[in-house]
Design a protein that fits this description.
90 residues, mainly alpha, signal, 37% helix, Prominin
Length: 90
C-alpha cells in the first residue's frame, strides 16, 4: 500500500478500536495483561548457569552427513548433469 492507503487503514482501525465502550464503537480490546490464548502459560524451569564450560575451536563434522546428502541430491536435481560444454578443458 502507499503511504495514504496505510494512513487510511490506520485511521479506520483507530476509529473502531479507540474506546472501551462496546455500544459506542462496537469493538473492545482486551487488557494487555489478560491471557487471551486458550493455552496455559509456559512454566520455565530455572536455568543451570555455570562458568565451567570450556569451548573449543576444533571442528567436528559428525552429524553433518545428512546435510551433505540432501545438498548433493538437491544440486543433482537442479543442475544439468553436464555442467561444461563438450570439448577439451584445460
Amino acid at each position: 500500500m502507499s503511504g495514504k492507503g496505510e494512513l487510511l487503514v490506520f485511521a479506520v482501525f483507530l476509529a473502531f478500536a479507540g474506546g472501551e465502550n462496546p455500544g459506542k464503537n462496537g469493538l473492545v480490546l482486551p487488557n494487555p495483561e489478560q491471557n487471551v490464548m486458550p493455552f496455559d502459560p509456559v512454566q520455565y524451569s530455572p536455568p543451570n548457569v555455570s562458568n565451567n564450560y570450556q569451548s573449543s575451536t576444533k571442528i567436528n563434522a559428525r552429524g553433518m552427513g545428512h546435510l551433505y546428502f540432501i545438498t548433493r541430491k538437491f544440486m543433482d536435481f537442479v543442475l544439468d548433469p553436464q555442467a561444461f560444454p563438450e570439448g577439451k578443458l584445460h
